[in-house]
Automatic annotation (TrEMBL):
GO terms for cellular component: ribonucleoprotein complex; ribosome. Belongs to the universal ribosomal protein uL24 family. One of its GO terms (molecular function) is structural constituent of ribosome. This is Large ribosomal subunit protein uL24. InterPro entries: KOW, Rib_uL2_dom2, Ribosomal_uL24, Ribosomal_uL24_C, Ribosomal_uL24_CS, Ribosomal_uL24_KOW, Translation_prot_SH3-like_sf. PANTHER family: MITOCHONDRIAL RIBOSOMAL PROTEIN L24. It comes from the Bacteria. It comes from Candidatus Shapirobacteria bacterium GW2011_GWE1_38_10. It holds the Pfam family ribosomal_L24. The gene is rplX. Part of the 50S ribosomal subunit.
């Protein structure tokens, strides 16, 4: 999958179209990601012995194909290209500004 934890993405379709946020979790098998503060839903919790009840908001996973990566340098929506240097290290590259994309968390 070309989107990693810590990347900044923009939502392409749905109720959060045009909004952007940071990727919190990546589910590679189902090709879904969780974006901080986007695609929220409300969950009603019953009180338990150690926890108070109430209504909380949680992020719901969204398909990775419905998002696009934002380049940290040019701030444009991009598709990712890969390059392999002489040492054999594989790195992600912005197709528009040709800069290397490094995720903030791993």
């Amino acid at each position: 999958m070309k989107i990693l934890k810590g990347d900044k993405v923009e939502i392409l379709i749905g109720k959060d179209k045009g909004r952007s946020g940071e990727v919190l979790r990546v589910f590679a098998k189902s090709e879904e990601i969780v974006v901080k503060g986007l695609n929220l839903f409300k969950k009603h919790l019953k009180p338990t012995q150690g926890q108070k009840g109430g209504i909380i908001e949680k992020e719901r996973p969204i398909k990775a194909s419905k998002t696009m990566l934002l380049c940290p340098n040019c701030q444009k929506r991009i598709r990712v290209a890969y390059s392999i240097d002489k040492n054999g290290d594989k790195s992600r590259i912005c197709r528009k500004c040709k800069s290397i994309i490094v995720s903030t968390k791993k």
